[in-house]
Amino acid sequence: MKTARLALLLLAIGTAPVAQAAGNIACDISYNLSGWSLFYKTASGNGTIRCENGSTIPVTIKVRGGGLTVGKSKIVNGKGSFTGAYTVNDLLGTYAAVGAHAGAVRSSGAQVMTKGDISLALAGTGEGWDLGVDGTAFTIERR
Q1: What is the CATH number of the domain that holds 61?
Q2: In a domain, 132, yes or no
Q3: What's the rounded Cα separation, in Å, for the pair 56 and 27?
Q4: By the 8 A CB rule, do 123 and 77 touch?
């Protein structure tokens, strides 16, 4: 009887699912974005997330916010890098940012935003003009 219990226990341990420790994945985003602001800030665009593990996700981007801001801008071939994610699905959702900005005709900018433990650093060159200080929600969704 004891031998049978021991055999069942060893069988159960051997067939139990094993938890795997996952590490952070390295992912980048390339995107195009255009929008305007007059106290209320809005922009939208498309992008692609690519990860070192081979995952690729086409995404839509929505930016909504407000503050003391005015302008119109367009970013083409913007780039970004994610840190702190364990799966590709961790990258989707809404990131928060607060920033000050000023630019005319052609301007460059960089911004870091967070969603919990995940950070997104963006850099891009754009056309248009803008001036202000704002709080922004930057939402990334599957296309």
Answers
A1: 2.40.128
A2: yes
A3: 9
A4: no
Q: Give ∠ CA 77-83-88 in degrees, rounded to 5.
A: 80
Provide, for the chain, the percentages of residues in helix, strand and coil under a 3-state DSSP scheme, each rounded to the nearest 5.
Answer: 15, 70, 15
Q: Using DSSP, state whether 9 is helix, strand or coil.
A: helix
Model pLDDT, residue 90: 95
Residue 88 falls inside a structural domain: yes
Question: Residue 37 corresponds to which tokens in the numbers above?
Answer: 């602001």
DSSP 117-128: TEEEEEEEEEEE
Which residue segment(s) compose the domain that 94 sits in? 20-142
Q: How many structural domains does the chain have?
A: 1
The model's pLDDT over 90-134, given as tens digits with 9 standing for 90+, comes to 999 999 988 777 767 666 677 899 999 999 999 888 788 778 788
Tell me the pLDDT tens digit for each residue of 32-82: 999 989 888 899 999 999 999 999 999 999 999 988 888 888 999 999 999
59 in a domain, yes or no? yes
Residues 61 and 124 sit within 8 Å (Cβ to Cβ) = no
125 belongs to a structural domain: yes
